[in-house]
Amino acid sequence: MRHPKLATWLVASLLSAGALQAAEPPAPSQRPRGFDVANLDRAADPCRDFYRFACGGWMDKNPAPPDEPSWGRFEALLDSNRETLRSILERASADDPRRDPTDRLIGDYYASCMDEKAVDAKGLAPLKPVLDAIDALADKGALPEAVAALHALGAPVLLGFAPTPDQDDASRVIAEADQGGLGLPDRDDYFRDDARSAEVRKEYVAHVQRMLELAGDEPGAAAARARAVMEIETALARASLDRVSRRDPRKLYHKMTRARLQALSPSFDWSRYLRGIGAPAFEGLNVAVPGFFESMGGLIGERSLADWKSYLRWHALHHAAPVLPAAFVEANFHFYGKVLLGAQEESPRWKRCVNRTDAQVGEALGRRYVEQTFGERGKERMRVMVAALEKTLKQDLEGLPWMGEATRKQALIKLAAISNKVGYPDRWRDYGALAILRGDALGNAQRADAFEFRRQIAKIGKPTDRSEWLMTPPTVNAYYEPPTNSINFPAGILQPPFFDNAVDDAVNFGAIGAVIGHELTHGFDDQGRQDDEKGNLRDWWTAADAREFEKRAACFVDQYGSYTAVADVKLNGKLTLGENVADNGGARIAYAALEELQGGKTPAPVDGFTADQRFFLGWAQVWCENATDEFKRLLAQTNPHAQANHRVNGVFVNMPEFQKAFSCAPGSPMVGEKACRVW
User: Fold this and answer.
1) Beta strand 486-490 with 419-423: parallel, antiparallel or unpaired?
2) Measured between alpha carbons, how far is 129 from 146 in angstroms, rounded to an integer?
3) pLDDT tens digit string along 264-292?
4) What are the C-alpha distances in Å from 524 to residues 248, 362, 415, 585, 640?
5) Do both 625 and 478 map to the same domain?
6) pTM for this structure?
């Protein structure tokens, strides 16, 4: 539904320990408000720029803080949740022998992360065994074990390897090998020829050199090794699929035997790698990008052992940087925070330590978060709203004029089979096998990574656990999961400004209602429509209906592809297609559900706005945001979502209901000449 701040690689990079300051007592958390007329810019014309009208007041009063590349109401809720988590962790971190296992786990993890003096005093010593093992590699035949060891510690070097539901039978989990091993956010970052991209590549090589120097390399040697790292990553990027191509699930499904994978990359002994990670026995797996592994095999032969050691050494340092001494943290922030995102200051250490605790033991922390903020009552209210949105989507599918009966029948079967996960898991994760030692920040991080890696690898060959969550309960996000045909709403997002028990239905349906609709329609968009009700990759559309869908989807590609993200960068209409269709469909479904709830009655205006107007304001005020140009540029190039202003205006120019609600005359900027619509 929303970029999880950034891609996984960058989230890991920015979980650095922050501003390196002593802990301060938690301040009382100020929960964000829902819809607020003070956020409006009444001088703006809603028919010219509705985003400015709805959000201008908020934007003027809430510039991005120096430690944030973007600041919006999304981030404000994240920050509020983080304050709540901090309060929980400060209490749990008190070294009290009476603490229960959950509080001991999360409290000691957080306390160790916050113990800056201990981290600095240990220096690079906790990572030395890892670096020594890399230095001791005798030949390239040992690379599989070295990669396996780093994977077990969470470092995503060379390739990706993980469990995945089998797309032929989503009830079973198989192994999957995929492209990976890059240090820049996108494979195209290695090839774009604009001045900004060239500067980022230059800064990246300088950053790798700086990190190697901090680890003890002489400047000349570090410079040569950094160049080797860049050359290896550029070759891996060249063999990787781009983001738009990866939106097509059929381009990422190539089931084959282990023997066939071995033949693709003969210089990489897969048996040694699989033994190294402790994988269970299996014969078949999915190889997402076969061409990547062909190129990887050749690359292993082409580059020297010394170059591969430099590459592995860099990624070991990069992954560990958040829990290394201050100099590493500062270097990490300079490139990944300042150069890439435009942030001017590091976040306080407590914020980064809260984030790390959530990232590594999130269900234990989430259990305490749910007890304090959500509970069964909130879960039940959300279920009622989801049911209303599903009913409205069913009516929409039944009446779509462009969908034939054969496809419609299958669509309704899939809708009826969607499962809803709200708030938090029904069964909490057992962390009993994870050892967290007070005062051992890096060791805790390594053991937590290893615990999660073993947990994931153990899934191979087993039934798919459809009850598992891919996000922790405090997360401010939501998602549709194709293999399980489920929509998922963590407790963290079920608060103002998304859901507010103190405001009218119109605002709530415009905010969380449109989010629910958004996730539901993902089951039927250009990606979701390729999976059936069981999560299997199956084309259940007739050729004629597929053409009708693609014709309507092309309208969104053209519309959003014409929007400017920043300066010389346009949005990528193909990359953002699924999210744009979902934004538009979600708003339409939520609006129809609100109309049905009102039963033809016209509620009295509130704050001077009609119910229809408040619906549109509810959606818009979720997305109020300020962001650096660097952040906007990066998201436009890497993220499947449009930026905030286009998620608002881009939807409403397609809705006659909006134009009627605000009396927009034909020809107004908020009245689209060619309204795009799928649902």
Assistant:
1) parallel
2) 12
3) 999 999 999 999 999 999 999 999 999 99
4) 14, 30, 9, 10, 17
5) yes
6) 0.91
